[in-house]
Amino acid sequence: MKISVVTTTWCCAATVGDCLASVASQSYPDREHIVIDAASRDGTLDILQAHRHRLAVLVSEADRGIYDGLNKGIDRASGEVVGFLHADDVFADPDVLTRVAAAFLDPGVDAVYGDLVYVARGDTLRVVRYWRSGAYRRSRLRWGWAPPHPTLYLRRSLYERFGGFDLRYGIAGDYDLMLRMLMQLSGRVVYVPEVLVRMRVGGVSNRSLKHLMQKSREDYRILRANAVGGFGSLAWKNLSKLPQFIAARGRRA
């Protein structure tokens, strides 16, 4: 069973090498790495070209944002299962895809996810926030729960059935996609209770108060559009993040 890992890049020369090396070091052999670059101008493309022999697909062209790039990657994926690793992020260890693949050996499984840690930009072993997902129950979606998107792997057939990322959302398109999928899929959703991804802080959605406000507005629209909830769900979604900072105290990845 092939797993497709999609990465989008734009002017991330400082971190993309770690991402590429992390995928290349995975012990699971039946995988492909697809990179969609948004016409970077800072040397990112030079790094990608140097690693071209490790990539199944490399595209560099202007796009309409990160979700447009992710959709392009999904369209080019040939694996039965698709997941994402952003250019600032790394897998927690070399056996992440092996554990994901083991869960998908059950043909009744549609989705697999795990835990995530936010780490310092300059030290990917210093944990800033520990996101312990917990077991999936559809009812939890109405309380603002969702798995960490960078840990979520879905069968490619689900994208063919339900579509990809909605480009109307600039920051929270991943939340919309997860709700749309998880509210409708009929297969099992498996939780792997281990950290799968180390994510550097400073991403688009949380890099400024303006972006945080935009994300909250989009989250509310998404909750309403998917008939999941409203202001109460949004409040619980945001409040649930506070214990993650407490859980991170003194941790090293």
From TrEMBL:
UniProt KW keywords: Transferase
Organism: Thiocapsa roseopersicina
SUPFAM superfamilies: Nucleotide-diphospho-sugar transferases (SSF53448)
Taxonomic lineage: Bacteria, Pseudomonadati, Pseudomonadota, Gammaproteobacteria, Chromatiales
Keyword set includes Transport: no
Pfam families in the cross-refs: Glycos_transf_2 (PF00535)
GO MF term (any one): transferase activity
Record-linked CDD domains: GT_2_WfgS_like
Residue ranges of every copy of the Glycosyltransferase 2-like domain listed in the record: 4-141
Gene3D superfamilies tied to this protein: Spore Coat Polysaccharide Biosynthesis Protein SpsA, Chain A
Cytoplasm in keyword set: no
Source taxon at top rank: Bacteria
Protein name: Glycosyltransferase
Residues in the signal sequence: none
